[in-house]
Amino acid sequence: MGTLRGAKRAHRVGDARVGGLNCWENWMPQARHALYADGEDIHVSVWPGNPGNTADIVRFIAIEGRVWSLAANGLLSVDDVPRDFPLYDALAETGPSAIRSGGSAIAAPDGSWVVEPLVDEERLVVADADLRAVREARQTLDATGHYGRPDVFDVSVDRSRREATHFTE
Known about the structure:
single chain, alpha/beta, 4 helices
């Protein structure tokens, strides 16, 4: 998990602890586990914009972590690409008109949709996140609490800064 620099910590924002991961990091169970164990109440997943990735994992994170799960997904069409981009002609000729079609969404701690994934739509996605729903949901399952099984599993997260390369002579 050394490659997930800065993504292994939940931060206090008002009364909530907010954590997040980027793109495929959201599919990494150990990265999610580290955030849940750090007391995450709200999980923010950021994606380039593929509703196929969003629909399942946003709800799964909500259910697994008993957290509010938000997805911020991008929209990108051929019209957004500068015409002087070296591969613009090939992209416009053979590529889809919507390169990234969004999928921003919000799921409650029980996995229910508060805002279903928005496809091909640019808008501000907002919802009230009642933190009591997190506490209530964790009464039945707290993956890093009473169901964490510290008698069986020992998970360590090294938050020290690491270098990408080590040279030996």
